[in-house]
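Input.
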Amino acid sequence: MSERKPFIAANWKMFKTVGEAVAFTEAIQKEVGPLVDREVILAPPFTALAAVRGLMRAEGYRLAAQNCHWEEKGAFTGEVSLPMLRDVGCDFVILGHSERRHVFGETDGDVARKVAAAIRHRIPPVLCVGEKLEEREDGRTAAVVERQLSSALAGLGPSDVGELVIAYEPVWAIGTGRTASPEQAQEVHASIRERCAAVFDKDIANRVRIVYGGSVKPDNVDALMAQPDIDGLLVGGASLELASFRRIVQFVKL
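Output.
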C-alpha cells in the first residue's frame, strides 16, 4: 500500500484577482473542510499569494507559486525570487510548466537552475515534464521526458529530494480538452518512477509523488487516481470553478 499522500493542485495561471482568489480560498475550505488523507495546493497569481496564505486555516491546504527566478536578488525586472516566495509563505513552487517552456522559451538548463535554487531555499519544486503532440506521434515521449528529468535532477543527491513533486503534463493535453488515457498516463508515470530509482534509489523513487496534469476534469479524476503511480493532479481550467475543483479534490478511490 502506497503511503504517498495525494497531491491535488489548482494552477490558476493568469486568472483571478485578489478578491476572487480570496473568495475561492474561503469557499473551498468551507465546502470541503479539513483534509488528512490528501493535500490541496492552491497556486494563485503572485498578486494573491499573501492574501491566500492568510486565509489558509484548515488542515491539508498549502500554497504554491507558479514560477520563480533562480537568483536571490538582482536587476531582473518582473521576476520573483525564492526568498520572496519564502517570505510570503509558499510551500511549493511550480517549475518548468509547459507554458513556461513553450510560450516563454525556458530551456532545460533554466529549469534545472530553478530546481536547484528551490531546493537550496527549501521550497520543494513541482517539476513539470511532458512531450508535445508531434513528439508523442513520433514515439519520442520517453526520450523527451527522460531528457527533461535528467537535466533537472542532475547534481541533486538523495537528501535533496525531500518533498519533490514531479508533474507529468503532456503538452498536447493541456487546455485542449484532450486527456491522456489513464493507461497512457500510468505508463509514463511508471517510467518516471523508474528513472528516479536509477538516479537515486528505489526507496526514494517510491516516496516521490508523481502527479498528472492535462485537461483533468470531474469526469476523469477517479479513473486517473485509480492508477498505481498517479499520486495526484495538477489542475488548470477545471480548478477555476469551485464546483468542478471540489469534485476533483473529493475524488473517489476506486
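The radius of gyration is 17 Å.
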